[in-house]
Amino acid sequence: MAEEAGLDLVEISPNNDPPVCKILDLGKLKYANQKKAAEARKKQKIVEIKEIKMRPNIDTHDYEVKMKAILRFFEDGDKVRVTLRFRGREMAHQELGMKLLLQVKEDTATIAKVEAEPKLEGRQMMMVLAPR
Question: Would you place residue 48 in the very low, low, confident or very high pLDDT band (cuts 50, 70, 90)?
Fold first, then answer.
């Protein structure tokens, strides 16, 4: 029947009993599937991880500027990695860094959830936040 119509016999679902086949143009089917896949890729949102770097003794205005940037990243739907870098004698006061990261966590509690709790890696303390 397919040869008479000048089309192809395409097996749609081979796992069924009996297998399901259709008579259609294979080239058109492949083209349609390609277009559907391209459309799905176009609509997909790629979540980026933005990074905000701070120091433990950050000033209040600088902190507010960083917080505005974090809020803007959440509005765009991106995740945020807050990195706190310690230099020299600052390593002796890691509790100040932890306090700062907990403050960031508290300030963003309404719009973000903590994906990775604050942890120290070498001379950096990091925390990852994701939008709700």
Answer: confident
The structure tokens listed for 24 are 């259609």
- Between CA 22 and CA 58 the distance in angstroms is 67
Q: Which residues have a Cβ under 8 Å from the Cβ of 29 and sit 6 or more positions away?
A: 10
pLDDT value of residue 4: 86
User: Which two tokens mark 56?
Assistant: 């433990």
CA distance 30 to 11: 13
Q: Is the pTM of this model over 0.70?
A: no
b (16+ CB within 10 A) / e for 17-48: eeeeeeebeeeeeeeeeeeeeeeeeeeeeeee
Tell me how far the alpha carbon of residue 13 is from its chain's centroid: 34
